[in-house]
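Researcher: Next entry in the queue.
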Amino acid sequence: MQNGHSLPLPRCPHCNIAKPSLINAGGANTSDDRGKNERWWNMYKCATCGGVTLAVAPITDINRRTQGPITHIWPEPRMVHDSLPERAKAYLQQAIASIAAPAGAVILAASAVDSMLKEKGLKGGSLHKRIEEAAAQHLITAEMAEWAHEVRLDANDQRHADEEGALPDEADAQRSIEFATALAQFLFVLPSLVAQGRAR
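Model: Structure for this entry, 200 residues:
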């Protein structure tokens, strides 16, 4: 367990800033009703966004209060599953990493969606048209297609600096990333997990 002054994570689970300064903001040890399962809980505050990350580790030596390695972190850092095609994976990782630059994050999330659909053979027409086609082919649900129309995936507006298109904010970027992540789960992650489960 990292019981010093900071928690070394590659990115803040809240704002996704690289190499965050996560400062120890206090902690406590707990046990169950029989005095067993002793654990130490530490809170770490991001110096950039102020978000708090909670980490827990078992106490391996009760007398010395020695802590073992971290077993869980909340919220969990966002990770992109390895089952995604390389291009889509790279776009989605970059979208998550650039959430603080919403216009760029929206473009990257849209590019991830675009790449995933192309990987499934949907290459013609606009992005939203291909999403509709994916629903028609039952690659995704009708509800997912409707969701796509509710989020900012207007990468063309951003790339061409459409004067009538309002710039996306961080909430727009977050929703675009959530949709791209859900699409990845539906098209690649769940089929991969099913295949692995059947193989076992």
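Model: The CA atoms of residues 31 and 38 lie 4 Å apart.
Researcher: Noted, moving on.
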